[in-house]
Amino acid sequence: MIFDAHSDLPTFVYDERKRGKTAVLEGNLEAFNGWISSRVMAIWTRPERRGDATTYGLEVLNALLKDINESERLELVKNVGEMRTAIEDGRVALWLGLEGGEPIGESLDLLEVFYRLGLRVLTLTWSLRNAIGDGFFERTGGGLSNFGVEVVGKAEELGIVIDLSHINEAGFWDTIDITAFPVIASHSNARKLCDNPRNLTDDQILAIAERDGVIGAVAIPGFVDRERPTLEKYVEHIAYMVDLAGYKHVGLGFDFVYYLQGWGGRSVEGFENESRIPALLERLRENFSGKEVRAITFGNFERVFERVVG
Length: 310
Description:
Elements lengths: L2 E5 L1 H10 L5 H4 L1 H5 L4 E7 L8 H17 L4 E3 L3 H9 L3 E8 L8 H9 L2 E5 L22 H13 L2 E3 L5 H10 L5 E2 L16 H9 L3 E4 L3 H4 L6 H15 L4 E3 L24 H11 L2 H19 L2
Parallel strand pairs: 1-2, 2-4, 3-4, 4-5, 5-6, 7-8, 8-9
């Protein structure tokens, strides 16, 4: 089983349904989810829609919920029990996430509304500043705002997993300082192997592990290797983080984006899309025990979600 902690498929679903298509996920089930048992579907606010992010976020969510309702093989889940039941029944368990807190604006009430609609994973920032804090693109390097501190507390109260991918280092450490809950970095790699500010330093990796959290290894070329991103180098990131922090704190967060409109970037050689997951599993089995592979591919994120979400 595969637990993918980060997918931008909601953006694809929204775009396709705007073009008049229906049952987008069902029609592409084998391509997108054939090897995946559980997946976080992250709603990302396009930069040009930041001015009406709440409206846009709800529109994308509405499109996603309609699309799931048109499928017999997909289910939006709100707790680990529902996830396990869906998988046992042969369905793909989908979790709702926000990639950046823009849709909640400056309102804890809106955070609670999204929770009631299914939100269980909150990536505090995308790469730009929002009311919660600064993303890694911001030159000011500010940490969490006062509102951001309130958001973390409210997320703990509700049972929403806090995701530290995309936030800058000041905001990362602010979050670590104010929460004792497990946190995740849903789609980040090791900066020691690829010097990209979206990747994590050794200290950040260890801090997530100390909170009993998980880092999802990301399959975006620029986070794998700047010269020649390959499947082998992707697995090197997994092995490096396992050696540093232990196998219980590393998972998968593919962030495949090849299906997005206008995407013209390259892919990781040998790991271009979901169809290449068997090749990944083969490499993992060469490097880790069966117990470790099961933890990395599914069990670690399951553990965190069970503790935080329930």
